[in-house]
Each structure stands twice: as structure tokens, then as C-alpha cells.
Here is the input.
Amino acid sequence: MDLGISALSYVNSIKNDEFTVEEFISKSLERINQVDEKLHAFLRVNDLVIKNAREIDTKIKSNQNVGKCYGMPISVKDNICIEGSKTTCASKVLENFVAPYTSTVISKLNSEDAIIIGKTNLDEFAMGLSTEFSAYGPSRNPWNTDYVPGGSSGGSGVSVSANECIASLGSDTGGSIRNPASFCSVVGLKPTYGLVSRYGLVSYANSIEQIGPLTKTVEDSAFLLNIISGIDSNDNTTVDNKNQDYLNNIDAGISGKKIGIVTEMTNSEGLSTDVLNATNDAVKTFEKLGANCEQVSLQMIPYTVAAYYTITSTEAGSNLARYDNIRYGYEFDSSGFEFNSYISQARSKLGPEVIRRMILGGFVPSAGHAGKYFLKALKVKSKLIAEINHVFEKFDFLISSTVPIQPFKFGEKIQDPVSLMMVDFNTVTANLTGIPAISVPYKITNGLPIGIQIMANCLEEHSLLQAAYALEKTVDLPKVPV
Amino acid sequence: MTKIGLEIHCQLTKLESKLFCSCKADYREFEPNTNICPVCMGIPGSLPLLNKSAVEKATLIAMALDCKTPGKIAFFRKNYFYPDLPKNFQITQLNAYGNTSIGWEGRILVEDKQIKIRRIQLEEDPGRLIYEGATEKTKLTLVDYNRAGTPLVEIVTDPDFETPHQVREFLNILSDLLENLNVSDPGLEGAMRADANVSIEGGSKVEIKNIGSFHDLEKAVHFEITRQHSLAERKIEIIQETRHWDDGRKITVSARTKEEEAEYRYHLEADIPWVRINDNTKNQLRAQMPESISSKKERYISKYDITPQVAGILASDRYFSELFEKANNETNAKDVANMITTDIMGLLDTREKREISKLEAGHLSDLAECVKSNKITRASAKLALDEIIKNGKPLSQIIEVLDLGHVSDESTLSDIISQVLNEEVKAAEDAKQNPETVNFLVGKVMQKTHGKADPELTLTLLKKNLDIE
Here is the structure.
């Protein structure tokens, strides 16, 4: 039994009776037991999965209706709520938080008979891009465990890459799905803002973040997007995609399509030569497939990281204000505290990156400074949106590397917050403008992965997945060494 | 010159649910912390879902106050820490980046003086803090989140008032208006609250908060003006500050904590997309808008020939004007109006009494009819009302039970006599032969009228009917 199979081949194998759900789930649990002590993809593994697997096997044997997922094991980032189970956001502050309700994406997966095998690690409250800021210790890159797996959905990336599960759900605020997808050599899709319900996703920067899949293949991302997307009465920001089938004609190719190579993302200061070479190579591949590629400049790009951190810190300062330890949290003796000092004490359990952004978030939108920082950031955002709209009048897709660099070693960047921020350089544009973007595994150089990012206009996931599929079919990557 | 401005908070109590979730907008019946859900408790991952009816009701208020209304509205987060605030921010509105609140630049006439409405916005009410014992010495503060998320409309006036009396008049007009629009029940405890700012010639603006009722507001404003004048007379500077109304001592006291420039870090609430209110929607809302109090008053005067005073009293109260409209039928309008203003308003002077009252419009038209046709006296009508309010039985029954009717009406009696004669054919024949036996028939009539028939008239009519002497 190959645990590295895609979601679609898993479904076929189950239908062809090659193995039972229970057999696959048991093997997956064995695999987790075997590798996760080292990789630390999971914060918690669901103990009930064998029981769930048996139930689905019974349904299959007795020819009852079975959901599209046929019991495939899916992991979920630990900032997405499931009723009755812990959702910690990798924070000490939510160490004992048990969600009283289930998020929309999980309800949808459940109704398609997916098995949620466990909750995966992340940077605390999804702030970071290496999982080094998890309060429960970092995850490790399966390609080389001395290196970070990317983040913030690092645990999700690792769990899929290391074949601990078939697929995973992550969240992407500034690259948090695509970055670990790139670093771990899996496919990661950030959908259009509003395409997937955020109900049950613990907010960090709610104006720009989305839930999305991390999968082994582009087809699998389309498969999961079919399930999790669509309008939701519990999220006023969701849009109606009329039950679009993203798998349909996924092999349509990209002949005749116009692809813009984002100049600012291919000549940026921090871009590594290996990554640039891989990007240029991907452009050539697209041209071979019949696409027309040309350079396109987006002049707001150099300001996007600053705008991104200004906006996300402002929203984080607001979204995380509720962790005052009054209604839920952890226990400490509150006697003797005046209200404000109580809150300070309660918030002292937050990690350094969260505290950094809370302080920033208290400053940049404040009355005396908003004009210089927060309002300027909003201006960059709206100018960027105008540029993107203009560019997509001419182009079908934009291309860049997902991350300007390859995975780095633990501790290498953690002391230098600004250089860490610049790692988001290529990914934040999709969040600030709401457009969909996907990271496709493209190369392994020096034993570490490089992913290529393709972006499309809002709600153009269908053609985006076709382009990603075309690129994916041209690459043949080695198996993960773990 | 004295300048007084107001900031009024009015709950939209007539709505079914809270502003951003499906918990009840009317939280008053609930045990503490039982009218709550993940959304109004700000549980991680929950999202606010906008109650569209709240936007409509608030827009009605803006229209009734002659405000400008926007083509689309936005919500903002006002960030601050307070135990009654589940998310540690309040979802509210802001006009700093363009006019996107429910309304602005409105006006209302108060005793011939125009009061300008600066802004109207829709926001969520926080929870309720309950202090154990005296406010200053409390050891334990309890929080009840049942109220958290209740739809609240904030109405801010320009500092156009000059006297506490004008303030009081304005609040009366405003609460009648809100009641008439069927958006709020201002009589409910805590449904309407107000803060005031007061300044006198040459002094800084002083804000007064923590005022429990409209009655106290007038007193607080009066006290504050007196305090400021007394400072001015002694050439003591009036500093800009926030003062709290001390309900026990009936004075304002400095809030002491230095109120720095408020730092709320306002930013857009992205979880609620902008709501478009196009002209079509506005026209529909306008068409739904109930008749204004002043136009209602005019109509009562011109159509029913009711005195302006009675018409004014009726029109300004939603409950009584509805009762009046339902009970009157062109001919009895004056009687119905008088009965409401002289009797019913006294009997149903509180909200609680109205709620349990069984009185319906039909009772009132019946009653007016009976009085008019002399079936019962005006005094009896009042007795009957008392009973109707208690048990809601039909007027005819009540008149019987209370023995209010006096059957001295010829035609009524004649009808009853015809009935008796039809039923007692033999006795009628006997009476014709032997007039002495007519008393048997009188007895029968008495039975039918429960003894209320005028005996002499009955005898006369019977004799006439039987053609005997």
C-alpha cells in the first residue's frame, strides 16, 4: 500500500476494493507514529479515526451512499474549529480552548465522509512562516529536518509531504498555505477571498485571509476546492460560485494563454539564484506548452510587504484583543489585579511574534500615526488592486516563484524580523488584492524544494488550476526522503 | 450662552434578533448569560452576520429625523478593553472616511426651535455590568452578556439646546417618534439612554455620562449648568472633563481618571461587506413609514373634529392612537377619543397594564354605541371598562353581569314583549279574557331582562299590545 497516493487515486483504490478505509487509516496512523516524533506535523491526532473508518467501510460494503472522500485521511490546521475538540492556534493562550461549534469547511468535509486525522502545527495564531513561533515547538521539513517547513501552515505542509495523510486544510493570510507548500514540495492553493467560508477559522487578519487545500497534486486541490467552496450563510463575505466543478477539463492546457512574469518578483534583492533559475525555467516550460509569456511591472509591489504587515498587525491587534482570559483561556490567580493589569498578565502568555505584531497593531492605526502608516497601507492596497485589475485585462495569469528563497535552517532568520518579513515578498500580493494563487512543486535543488506561484484574476480558480495542472505534468520530482 | 448637546442610545427593541446573530433582541426575560451564542460571545472563529432589518429600522429613524442617508453603509471596529465587551471591540459606524453611517445632518423641531441631528449610527450594545453593592466599594463585578449585540441606534445632536426644559421636550418628542415608527419601546428599562455635554459662555465643554433615565438627564443638565455658573461667578476656570451623574446624591462628579484623547484604532469591519441602500430601497422604506405624529394630529382634527389637545394626546401615543383608529367609525370618533383620553389612559397608564389588558377596539366601539343609544350611562361605561380590561368578555355580557343596563327603551322592550307573547300564546289569550292574569306575562319579561325592565313601561306596553285596559 502506497501512502503517497493522491486523493483521486485513493478514491479509485477504495472503489476497486484494493484496500479498506480501515487499512489505509491504520497505515497512516502507523506512519504518523513512525515519523511525527521527528517531524512534529501534528499537535493532536484524532483517536476516533479507526472507528470512523470502520463506519465508512460498513457503508461501502452495504452499498449505502458514501461521500466523495471515501474516508480519506485529511489533516487540519489547528486554527480551524471542530466542535468538542481543542483548537489551540499553537498558542498557550488557547491551550484549553474547546470549540463549541464546527467550522463550515469541516462540516462540508464530514458530509463527504472525509476523516479528520488530526490537527496540525502552525506559527502561533498563524503569524510566521517557519512554525518556529509555535508555542508547542516547530515542525521539521521532511526533505531535510535541519530546515524549516515554511509556515504558517507548516504542519499541514509537512503532513502531506511526509505522507502522514492524503491532504490538509490550511489558512493563508500572506502566503501561509503557499509558503509551506513550496518549502515541502506539495501543491498549495489560496482561493479568491470569499470563495471559501471562514466560519470557524480563528481570525488573524480577516480582511485578506482564506482557508485552502494543501495536496499532493493539482487535481487534488481542485477536488477539495469542489467540496469546501461556495456561499455560506454563516459568512457574509462568501460569494456564490454556482457549484463550479474545478476538476472539469483540468487538462485543457494553456495554449494561447498570456502569462505575465512579474518583474518586481524576479529582480528583487532577496531572490536566490537557484530560485530565479527555476522561475526562468518554468517560464520556458510554459512557452513550450504554447503560452505567451512576457514581463509585466506592478509598481506597487515594493511596498506590499510593508502594507501587508501594517494592515495585518492592525487587524491582529483587534482580532486578538478578545484573548483577555475572562471567558476562556488558562488559569491563573486573578486576585489583586486591577482590570488593565489583569489583561496584561493574561496576555503575557502570548509568544514573541504575536506580541511584536500586537504592539505594531496598537501603533500603526492609532490617532496620531494612522495617516503615516495605516491609511498609507490602505492606499497601497487600493492602488495595487487597481494595478492588478489593469494587468488582468491583458494577461490570464501572473507567474513568479512562490518564495524568493529556498527553505532556511532553524534559527537562521528568527532574530531578524525584517528579513523574515521579506520572505513573504511574492505571496502577499494575492492576499492584498483577493486574487487566487497556487504554488506548484517545480524543482528540488540541493535537496530542497522550489515552488512556482501562478496567480489569476478573482474567481478564476478554474483556469488557474488548468495552468497549474499543465505545469505539474511537466515535472518529475524525487520521492520525499523521510 | 448655554449650549447643550445630546448623545442618545436607543435599542431597536422591536427587532426579533440581535444585530449580528440570531439571539433575541429582547434579552430582558432571560436568566443571566443564557441569551448568548458563539457570535455575540466573540468565541474564536465566529463571524458577525448582519441583521438587515436593523439597517432598515435604523434608516427609518434617519428618515423620520430628516437626515441624509447614504447609498451604502459600512461598519467599523472601535477597539477598547472593557469587561462588558466580549470581543474587546465594538462594531459600530464612523463617518471619518466619508459618510457611511445610517444618517447625518438631520433636524427636528422642538417648541419652534430647530435642533440639528449631527449623526445617526447603528451599533451593538455591550453586555451589562452588575456591581455588587455600592459602585465605589464593590468587590465583585458580574457580567451578563444577554444584552451583548443588541441593536443600538446612536443619535447625536448638535449643541443646539439652551435649557434643560428643551432637552426634556426633545426627549419626549423623540421617544414618541421612535414608538410611532414601531422600532423601539422607549418604556422598557434601559431601552433609551442618553449622555449630555454642557457648556456656558466662556467655559469648556463638560460631558455628563452614566445618566440612568430621561428624568435624571434633565436634572443632571440643570445641575451642571448651575455648577458651571457658580464656578464662573467665582472666576474659577471650567475645565474640559467628563463627569458622572451620581444618582444617589443627584449631582455630577468628576470622573477623575484623566480622559485622554480617545484611542480607538478605528478600522473597517471586513467581516461585514458594505450594504447598499439604493433609491429603490429608500423609496420602499419611505412608503412603509408610518404616518408622522404631527400629520396624524392634523388628520384627527380635520377629519373627526376633535379638539387639538385631545388629537395631540392621541396622536403622540402609538398604543392609544392605534386603539382609536380601530375603534372609531366616522360617527363615534369623538366619543371614542374622549373615552380613551378621559378613562382608558388612566386605567392603562403603564406598559405592564397595557400588556395584560384584554381590551380590544371592538369593545370600545360597542361601548360608544351603548352610551350613545342610552343603553348605559357614561358612569356605567367606566365600570364596564374596568371589567373588560380584566377579563375581555363581550360588552353585552359585562353589562349583564354587572347589571349595568337599564332597559327602559321602548323598542327594546317591545321586542322582548313580542318574544314573550309568541312563546306564551295561551297566557296571552288568558290575559285578554282576564286582564288580572297579565302579571304572569310581566314576570316573564322580567325573567328575560334579568329584572332590568322598567315594570311600569312593561305593563303599559303589554296592555297596549294585547289591546286590553
